[in-house]
Amino acid sequence: MVLAGLLKVADPGHFQAMLSRYGLFPAPLLPYVAPLIIGGEILLGLALLSGRQIRHCLALCEVLFYTFALAVASVLYRGLQIRCACFGVFSLKVSPWHCVICLAVAVYLSWRRTRLEVEDQLARVSR
After folding, report:
1. Fewer beta carbons within 10 angstroms: which end of the chain, N or C?
2. Distance of CA 112 to CAs 10, 70, 80, Å?
3. How far is Cα 50 from Cα 44, in angstroms, rounded to an integer?
4. How far apart are CA 1 and CA 57, in angstroms?
5. pTM above 0.70, yes or no
6. Nearest to residue 7, comparing CAs of 42, 31, 49?
7. What is the DSSP secondary-structure string of 86-127?
């Protein structure tokens, strides 16, 4: 997530233009939405790397990946031929695999978060 955010920071105007092609946000909001997405990705990635509040970070990552999957699904449904914007200028053409990967990551994060919660509960009971 940190890498994806940093690649977008390198050319935020390009990311904003790519985001506009999704057609999900009104044009006047794009200058505000694009930096929020970029900053959110970087901060969330750094928070995950820090290891603090990991369950909360994983939950936010889940939401982010489900949101990405829905955005890509909407592009595919509407037949738009665009790039995903995942990695800034290095982004690939949107395909169904983007949805599969985003959903797989979200499910894994959900499983991992649930496992951490169970481990915490077991640790409390064993005290």
Report:
1. C
2. 31, 22, 34
3. 10
4. 12
5. yes
6. 42
7. TTGGGPPBP-HHHHHHHHHHHHHHHHHHHHHHHHHHHHHHT-
